[in-house]
Amino acid sequence: MLRIVTPPASYPVTLAEAKAQLRVSDSSNDLMIGALIPAATKFCQSLVQRVFVLQTLEWVLPCWRAALALPIAPVLADQVASIKYVDWTTETQATLDPSAYVVQTKGDSVQIVPKFGTYWPLLFARSPEPVVIRFDAGYEDPADLPGNVKVAILLMLRHLYTMGEVSLTLTSDTVFGAGQQQYAVPANLATLIPDAVRNLMLDEVW
């Protein structure tokens, strides 16, 4: 289980940038647009197992692994704050001494292994949260965020906003003297933008 301890203070796209993308000039829908920004961001993050803005997370494990490869990126070695575990003998949570493990980096991903010649301590695995690793993940400087990521978020934002406004597969016209006509557009129109977003995010998969 991966959970957020401290959420990001901001998102890669501002309200002003979102409104410009949506061609919205008034403030009547600011609340909804503001809610769609994190939704679009999280959709893009889920495609590549990344977080785009610095935040504090906890990874809860049922047992030790030979190498604890953090399931999200980017993470730096010094961003692993603590490893807590439930001790076998006391059945209480303890903090593992940082000298007992090594944080290894590979690109912008991290794995944690026991110090050479040692083993993970005995674990009381019947506890609800046997192992909890706290760490920071995300880009510390928003300027480091790849441009394709921001474009993908803006596109997904437009898709979510449009889905709430009109039907993408049915269009109607009112013709004077003839009444109203309805016609269907290609069914795959609703997937064009999400597919484009997925393609934009391919370079960010790790």
Automatic annotation (TrEMBL):
Domain of life: Bacteria
Listed InterPro entries: Phage_CHP (IPR011738)
Protein name per its UniProtKB record: Uncharacterized protein
Taxonomic source organism: Bradyrhizobium diazoefficiens
